[in-house]
């Protein structure tokens, strides 16, 4: 059963020891950053804003910084035969290495979390250039993934010291209306969900928001359990999934088999107009999961009145769900690489703060159809 954790009204609010302003950037380690950067520009409408590599004096890697409104992606590749980046890519395929969090005080963020048990990824350090200074510090989360704390209040450059401004070289890749990161989902190993929820609670001061058990989300075949944690202001939300026993292989198990570790499964990106965003993404060749026609037969019965006409929702194969506070529209891409690992969710919230539980069955069946095509069900 879905359990919503009641807001605590009686207990006095204790000061947030890890105030977060939001997601600063998501960094991928990839096999070929130049080509990935082209894909995210041409297909997803990101703009190239900064670069670091041999031309800027960096000898071991190249990084492209892409931005669309408040979403920043960094694509990094290694120039060496063997490095942490090449090993990450060899093991996981292209994947998310860093979920960077924007903070006012990176040293304090590092101290508060490491004293509560976070495993350090790198000690705080300050870097500067003609645009000012930035302080960075890093801690590990699940798998090889890290959270980097980014303190940039004294910085006005295009990204970080060491990066130079670069503009887009893909004229056909205009923005598609993606605005901000809504949530980033982690897949963790069998039985490991609760320990990661506890990590976000104890080490990062997050609160448990929602629990989905296997009855909410088991289809005929696969199964999973999920808990959503949120920071104090709700700007940063991390659902954590673990596989559950089902008739056949769980979609989470398929991810773990190909990522060979816990890691980021999907990133949900907010749009204020999902119909125009998805129309444009489809036109550019982004592939989405699809639900059968029957999904739309009882849609209005299930969600009540929505502002959009059902025909346009159906034509784009969008999913709709309602909670106590409003409704949401969402759709999921197929994996964006050959391994069935990382994908995106495009989401428009019209009041709803939930995650689309009413769509889980249709969505997970759509995922399982793809799993079967890959021979992994
Ligand atoms: O983030 C969520 O909770 C929703 C639903 O493997 C979801 O987007 C949950 C698990 C999953 C795919 C989507
Ligand atoms: Fe999601």
Automatic annotation (TrEMBL):
Cofactor(s) needed by this chain: Fe cation
GO biological process: L-tyrosine catabolic process
Keyword set, alphabetical order: Dioxygenase, Iron, Metal-binding, Oxidoreductase, Pyruvate, Repeat
Record-linked Pfam families: Glyoxalase, Glyoxalase_5
UniProt GO MF annotations: 4-hydroxyphenylpyruvate dioxygenase activity; metal ion binding
Source species, domain of life: Bacteria
Segments forming a coiled coil: none
Cofactor notes: Binds 1 Fe cation per subunit.
Stretches assigned to the VOC domain: 22-152, 180-334
CDD domains found in the cross-reference section: HPPD_C_like, HPPD_N_like
EC number: 1.13.11.27
Binding locations of Fe cation: 183, 266, 345
Entry-linked Gene3D superfamilies: 2,3-Dihydroxybiphenyl 1,2-Dioxygenase, domain 1
Main EC class the enzyme belongs to: oxidoreductase
Family recorded in the similarity comment: Belongs to the 4HPPD family.
NCBIfam families: 4HPPD (TIGR01263)
Protein name: 4-hydroxyphenylpyruvate dioxygenase
Gene: hppD
């Amino acid at each position: 059963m879905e359990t919503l954790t009641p807001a605590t009204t009686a207990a006095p609010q204790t000061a947030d020891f890890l105030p977060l302003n939001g997601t600063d950037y998501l960094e991928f380690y990839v096999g070929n950053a130049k080509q990935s950067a082209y894909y995210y520009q041409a297909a997803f409408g990101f703009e190239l804003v900064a670069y670091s590599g041999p031309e800027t004096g960096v000898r071991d890697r190249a990084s492209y910084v892409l931005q669309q409104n408040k979403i920043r992606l960094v694509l990094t590749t290694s120039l060496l035969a063997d490095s942490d980046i090449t090993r990450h890519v060899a093991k996981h395929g292209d994947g998310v290495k860093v979920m960077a969090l924007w903070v006012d005080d990176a040293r304090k963020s590092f101290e508060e979390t490491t004293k509560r048990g976070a495993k350090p990824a790198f000690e705080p350090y300050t870097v500067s250039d003609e645009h000012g200074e930035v302080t960075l510090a890093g801690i590990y989360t699940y798998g090889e993934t890290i959270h980097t704390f980014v303190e940039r209040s004294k910085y006005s450059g295009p990204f970080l010291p060491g990066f130079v401004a670069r503009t887009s070289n893909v004229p056909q890749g205009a923005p598609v209306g993606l605005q901000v990161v809504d949530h980033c989902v982690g897949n963790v190993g069998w039985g490991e969900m609760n320990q990661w929820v506890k990590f976000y609670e104890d080490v990062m001061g997050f609160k448990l928001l929602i629990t989905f058990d296997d009855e909410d989300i088991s289809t005929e075949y696969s199964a999973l359990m999920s808990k959503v944690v949120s920071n104090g202001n709700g700007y940063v939300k991390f659902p954590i999934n673990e596989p559950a026993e089902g008739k056949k292989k769980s979609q989470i198990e398929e991810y773990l088999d190909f990522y060979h570790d816990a890691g980021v499964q999907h990133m949900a990106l907010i749009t204020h107009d999902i119909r125009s965003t998805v129309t444009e993404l489809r036109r550019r060749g982004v592939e989405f999961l699809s639900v059968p026609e029957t999904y739309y037969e009882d849609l209005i019965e299930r969600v009540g009145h929505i502002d959009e006409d059902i025909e346009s929702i159906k034509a784009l194969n969008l999913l709709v769900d309602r909670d106590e506070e409003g409704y949401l529209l969402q759709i999921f891409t197929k994996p964006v690489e050959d391994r069935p690992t990382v994908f995106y969710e495009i989401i428009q919230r019209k009041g709803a703060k939930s995650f689309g539980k009413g769509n889980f069955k249709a969505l997970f069946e759509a995922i399982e159809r793809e799993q079967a095509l890959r021979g992994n069900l």
